[in-house]
Backbone:
């Protein structure tokens, strides 16, 4: 990727000033196009620091999706989740906003996530979320990607967490790793039981 000053292109959208416009005239256009590009790439692709892990679950994607979407039962199988309440749902019954009380290592908080469900009828697809509000967390963006894998499901969990209190990046990544590993292990155990 070339710098903005040299007129790079993002997915065919040039940031180069048109005609003989000055750089100060082109800056608002470049910033608008950069913002468009970032939105088009999704929250996770723009995050430099994130943690990712995958697992194969011996169940169809639809069965895994059913467990992921049943938020109120998370405290029964997700060790770090203490309490969950669905705040709002869309017309199809998918949760739009969910409040969690979490206790995961260095991260203890009550927070609200907003969900986006880009899934097919067979359960494959992506469930992503962004932080709406929290006490300790500044950001918590993530996704589950479900893909058919023979008779099972390949599940990839991506997560980026930031907290309001100063914390070394390595500690944040460690907290993310604990959250992801615990969630995948507990989800696999629950679905396969």
Residues:
């Amino acid at each position: 990727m070339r710098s903005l000053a040299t007129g790079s292109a993002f997915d065919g959208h040039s940031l180069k000033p048109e005609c003989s416009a000055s750089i100060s005239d082109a800056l608002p256009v470049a910033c608008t196009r950069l913002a468009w590009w970032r939105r088009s790439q999704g929250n996770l692709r723009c995050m430099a620091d994130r943690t990712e892990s995958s697992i194969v679950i011996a169940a169809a994607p639809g069965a895994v999706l059913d467990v992921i979407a049943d938020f109120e039962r998370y405290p029964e199988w997700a060790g770090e989740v203490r309490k969950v309440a669905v705040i709002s749902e869309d017309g199809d019954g998918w949760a739009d906003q969910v409040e969690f009380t979490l206790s995961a290592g260095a991260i203890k908080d009550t927070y609200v996530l907003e969900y986006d469900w880009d899934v097919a009828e067979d359960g494959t697809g992506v469930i992503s979320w962004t932080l709406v509000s929290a006490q300790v967390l500044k950001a918590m963006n993530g996704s589950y990607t479900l893909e058919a894998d023979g008779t099972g499901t390949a599940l990839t969990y991506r997560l980026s967490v930031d907290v309001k209190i100063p914390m070394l990046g390595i500690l944040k990544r460690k907290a993310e790793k604990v959250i992801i590993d615990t969630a995948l292990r507990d989800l696999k155990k629950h679905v396969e039981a």
